Amino acid sequence: MVAGPASTRRRSTLDRLRADLLAAAAVVVLSALPDPARAQALPSLASDEPILLQADEVEYARELELVVARGNVEVAQGDRIVRADSLTYNRRDGIVTAQGNVAMVEPDGSVMFASYAQLDEGFAKGIARDLKARLADQTLLVAAGSTREGRFTQMDKAAYTACELCEDNPDRPALWQIKADKVTHDEQTRDIVYRDATLELLGVPIAYTPYFSHPDPTVDRRSGVLAPTYRSNSTLGSRIDIPYYIVIDPATDATVTPMWTTDQGAGLSAEYRRALDNGAYALEGMIADATDDVARDNVRGYIAGRGRFDLTDTWRWGFDGIWAGDDTVLRVYDITNRETLTSTLYAEELNGRDYAQIAGYWFQGLRSTQRQSELPTALPMAQWSRLGAPGMAPLGGQWRMESSFAGLSRQDGTDSYRATVGGGWNRSYIGSEGGVYTLTANLRGDGYVVDDLTDDGRSFNGTAGRILPEIALDWRLPMVRSDGETRQMIEPIVMGVISPYGGNSWKIPNEDSRDFEFDETNLFSTQRFSGYDRVEGGPRVSYGLRVGHYTGDGGQITGLVGQSLRARADDTFAPGSGLEDKVSDYVGRVVVTPNPNLDLYYRFRFDKDTFEPRRTDLGAAWIVDRASFDLSYTLLRADEREVTEDYTDREEVYFSAGYDITDDFKIFGSLRRDLENDRSINHGAGFAVDLDNCLYIVSEVRRSFSRDRDIQPSTDVLVRVVLRTLGGTY
């Protein structure tokens, strides 16, 4: 049968009505929701996608221009589905009505329900009753009634929560929810505004506000209040921080945090962050009241900043600086425990095997014994190095070249300027017996300009320098035995070094080589000092034995022990260092990893004569099921002739543990104790709990026994509560 004009018009009318019904039904439900993404998706309803209307019964009254669909009504277009018991469209007055279990499923997974919904044909106005919506971020919104006018949707007697409701008892109150007499959603600004709002915890009102707002689920970044933090200690008393997050533009944001303390008054901290095309930087600081005499003008604080920026594909520059208004403010406000602050400004190049840097360093001492006028300013600090390609050096092997410059100045004390130029060559080969031989030749020159140097009653102003040639031969014989998937390795090592004596004149100030420690990491180093100002000279030999046992399942046991011999004693090394005599102390380590969940280590230095331990580092890290443990023990014996504030006998133990009682509940604790003086340094315990993936709580109690000016032994209490979707890091 061929359709005539009448049937064609009828089919066209029905298609148009079905499209109207789908769009109208969709908007009726969407109009009541605080998510502009639903409204913005409406134009897709008029797309060329096929529209399917299903119902037990469809009736069209031509004279009344009324379309009625009854029984299991379902309208679908693409991934969007609208369901209702009945749906009516009056084309004469443009009213669409859906009632009875009205539901809509959105492509993003959102599901919306209502008992009744009505909307005009222009979609500008509408109402809904008994609205319930499970949004894409799994938050829940319910309201007794909803009306829509233009860009605004208003809900009456509404409640919002990010918590799951109890399946067995849906009427049970959510873990937390916000109830309000009126809730308004602005689809243009994407804000949800609550008026006369009450925060309930397990159905119990705990807070009221006449006005409250937060962004809707479509917003990734939005200015607003973040989760507050409560702390308490003996110095500040009770303290509460309420951070406010500010979105400035897509690449810039800031956090401003007012602080209130019961014993030290109010304060304000702030952090500014900005991302650029070639890098990023951040600035932060704090200012606070002070009721004691540790701060100037009863105000204390700090400023800090960091950043890094690319100049070219190989060059970049950056900064990292911090300044404190007084010596203890950073520890009092739990910013950092550093005793010396370092600020730097630098530029550097990384280009294949080449590296170059120029930098400046500034220091601030926070110890009571430090005088700021005696701390140096290191400017400029420059270094350059180039490493040749393997096998391209004369006679084969590999060459390297390096140079550096350091300028240090003080208000009170020694000023010095150092220039260093050096280079080296090394080549390895394998002997017929299987031994690996490595020959190294180094040459270095240092020149100094020194002003106002004093040493044992002597003073010096002028220039000084040295040239240090050095030849070293390293021999190793790795012996490996395999037994199935198990391998054992034994490797004896001997290294001899020849260099002249006398490279450490008293006219050369020691600025960068004070922190020296002899251990297994530098046993086979040609130069054991970490800096340039002191050098190791004279003939010397280091020998040791490396062993290893490796299993097929990844377990292993490795060890190293060794000693160093010198032609004569060298007073460059301080008494108690382990290298001051011709024969050094014994150094070594043992590492045991039976499986990926357990690590054991033992590092040691034994006195060469008495075999008494001079340095011991013992530790274990263990993860099993839901538990984790970390244990470390440190022993350091200082020589009686060299005991100072920084170099004393030390014996300390540290222990920390955590246990996941459930996937959402963890307890943790730690202890640090000074065994030398039989006292605790600090200890603490706490818990973190994630309740129903909607409420996060972390609480910790810490006890510190430190004393330093205004810092006294104290008990610190930390409490932080985060409601999911309402601010804070979750």
How would you explain this protein's 3D organization?
There is one protein chain. The chain starts with a helix and ends in a 7-residue tail after the last strand. The relative contact order is 0.06. It has a domain at 5-220. The protein is 5% helix and 59% strand. The strands form two sheets. It has a 26-stranded antiparallel β-barrel. Strands 1, 2, 3, 4, 5, 6, 7, 8, 9, 10, 11 and 12 form a twelve-stranded antiparallel sheet that branches. The protein has 730 residues and is mainly beta. A hairpin with a 5-residue loop joins β31 and β32 (556-566).
Describe the structure concisely for a colleague.
The chain has three helices and 41 strands. The protein is mainly beta and 730 residues long.
- Percent helix among the residues? under 10%
Uncertain runs with pLDDT below 50, 5 residues or more?
1-47
Sheet with the most strands? 26 strands, antiparallel, barrel
Number of strands: 41
Average pLDDT rating: 86
**If helices are DSSP runs of H or I spanning 4 or more residues, what is the number of helices?**
3
Radius of gyration: 37 Å
Sheet-strand content, in percent, reads over 45%
- Structural class, from secondary structure content? mainly beta
What is the CA–CA distance across the termini?
Answer: 66 Å
Q: Judging from the principal axes of the Cα atoms, what is the shape?
A: elongated
